[in-house]
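To: structure desk
From: M.T.
Subject: fold request, one chain
Message: Could you run this one when you get a chance? Sequence is below, nothing fancy, just the single chain.
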Amino acid sequence: MSMHGGMPKGHPHEVPGMKGHGHPGHPGHGGGGPDKSGGRKWLPKLIAWELTRSCNLDCIHCRAAARFGPYPNELTTEECYRFLDDVASFSNPIMIMTGGEPMLRDDIWDIAKYGTKLGLRMVMAPCGFLVTEETAKKMIES
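Reply: Done. Structure tokens follow.
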């Protein structure tokens, strides 16, 4: 397969001379904000962030061995904000909010909006059971 700019030649999002995936709005260094790499190649392009182990399901295949929580020592909302501040200070990766079931956190939409305001690309990996038309709209808004 011929690669050009990090994408297969002829791919609809191919950007000549651009390294990385070249998807519009997501430069090759990861998320959607400015390149903060300073020439460093070790910065994370993607962070899978387990915000909670709590889950409304009990899947035998789940590596998190998640159960309906709460779990001790999970980050508070303010601690999540500080973590996102720290990440945004040196990089702008795609942040995958995972769990357990991240939508069980009462503050999940606030955390997502906060990260977005910092220029991070916030995405979520829910189990899918709690996704409704209303929560899908909240995902888009945050």
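Reply (cont.): Residues 1-8, 11-30 have pLDDT under 50 and may be disordered. Let me know if you need anything else for the meeting.
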